[in-house]
């Protein structure tokens, strides 16, 4: 069963695109190495300040642009446990779910500040802001997507369906 | 209630009698395309090794090494080698390399046909919609699922109907039409939706120009951009030797659209998208920014029609002293065609540097990166911060004519001043 997540918010604005999260010049490197450059166009200190379990919070249109899965993979590698945004670009959203990085659409991310401690309950579609004692309702994630999340991502689901070799 | 073109195409892909916007379907994928940068090397090879050693249908998989060709570094060369070897090991006959951006290779080689569901590991896969296919970008793990099962889930999108009527004025190209549409809808205004382009302007455009329009649908967040297939589409494909029956489907007159926008091509003027967003659009005439690089190329602006248009403006002129004009024809076949007709040598005489067909410049990985403080006018599709090199560089997007005019004057220029 899917566990509730608890972590510290790293807060950014609208239109954080995939070129920002995963700069193309470093994509020839492994995700492990390239992730050091994640977000450098807007926050060069990003990779150094992420701590395992942190929650990436943004405004509208998170992940627009490229289909590059290296964007959510870099965030996940650095320790980001979930991404929360007012709205997502569709390929980025699907990529997050498929690699097992919980992605939650939340209309109220303006109320969340950098450093706030959040609890995310994806099953219930809710975020609790521990630092501010606020609860944000996020809508229920559709069943077919929740099934992928519960499997830890699409690869986990495929292994269940097709078996490992 | 009638059906949109997307509803019709996805009903077919789902093997269902009918579907409606909002439905979640399991669709059979007709063509799965991977490139080098986001193909086998990212999650796919490892996942296949873990789950299954063969793809569901080798005839339905196309792999194209395009972003890192020709490689500029050893890691890039290793990625191309890995992609090539993986394709061979998995019996993928449709493997291409060094011949240009994947989307152009797909449409030139009969891999994108009207009515088909085409998914690829690159966001601009939506370009295939210009031939009446349902074409969209996916991530690498999603591709892993497709390679194993031949299927993926899709939400049937709502459709924004965009109608353009009347003839484009002289000096104005499909790129301007695309930028105008993007400026009105906004860079996330079509998220999860299809943009269907119709109207007599669209119907009269050559396929090269239609491809430019659908290529940029994702710049509005769209799942795809689509133009109903018609006689022009069929002649384009038959000229490539496609013999299959090709349906020319359209949206029903009483189909439900989430929005309908009408534009008059007669009032359109040359436009540029200013840093660092594709919907930050203003008239080219108002810009005047000093440029250091002009780029004519990519899957958006490097087709034969684009090169010919640029040459029409550049013929007998020289580019400005402090500008480099980089030209990368969008495929080897376009390169050869432009070579035979004298376009490439004429562009070179005007001062252009002719490059290999490649994605390298557009995505800033080789063949012409920007230094801090430099400014580029580009016929490509994205001007995000840091995309073509330094994050302190600035990228403006314009039509091939605007790129050519700006290369001549050394500042962003409305091409009508020079035509």
Q: Beta-strand level of the residues of chain A, as a percent range? A: 15-25%
* Structure class of chain B: alpha/beta
Average pLDDT taken over every residue of chain A: 95
Structural class of chain A: alpha/beta
Oligomeric state as shown: heterodimer
Q: At the third CATH level, what is the topology name of the largest domain in chain B?
A: Aconitase, domain 3
| Helicity of chain B, as a percent range | 25-40%
General form of chain B: globular
Mean pLDDT of chain B: 98
Number of domains in the coordinates of chain B? 2
Give a description of the structure.
The complex is a heterodimer of chains A (165) and B (419). By secondary structure, chain A is an alpha/beta fold. Chain A has a single domain (5-162), classed as Aconitase, domain 4, CATH 3.20.19.10. In chain A, 28% of the residues lie in helices and 19% in strands. A seven-stranded mixed β-sheet of chain A has the order 4-3-2-1-5-6-7, covered by helices on one side. The model of chain A has no long low-confidence stretch (mean pLDDT 95). With 419 residues, chain B is an alpha/beta fold. Chain B folds into two domains: 8-263, Aconitase, domain 3 (2-Layer Sandwich); 269-417, Aconitase, domain 3, CATH 3.30.499.10. Chain B is built from 14 helices and 18 strands. Chain B has helices spanning 5-14, 40-51, 74-89, 102-108, 140-149, 174-185, 200-204, 207-215, 231-239, 298-301, 304-314, 332-340, 343-349, 400-409, and strands at residues 24-28, 31-35, 61-65, 94-97, 117-120, 134-137, 151-155, 159-165, 194-198, 224-226, 259-264, 271-273, 281-283, 293-297, 324-328, 352-354, 375-378, 394-397. In chain B, strands 4-3-2-5-6 form a five-stranded parallel β-sheet, sandwiched between helices. A five-stranded parallel β-sheet of chain B has the order 16-15-14-17-18. Chain B has a four-stranded parallel β-sheet with strand order 10-9-8-11. In chain B, strand 3 (61-65), helix 3 (74-89) and strand 4 form a beta-alpha-beta unit. The longest helix of chain B has 16 residues, at 74-89. The relative contact order of chain B is 0.14. The mean pLDDT of chain B is 98. Chains A and B meet through helix 5 and helix 7 of A and helix 2, helix 3 and helix 5 of B.
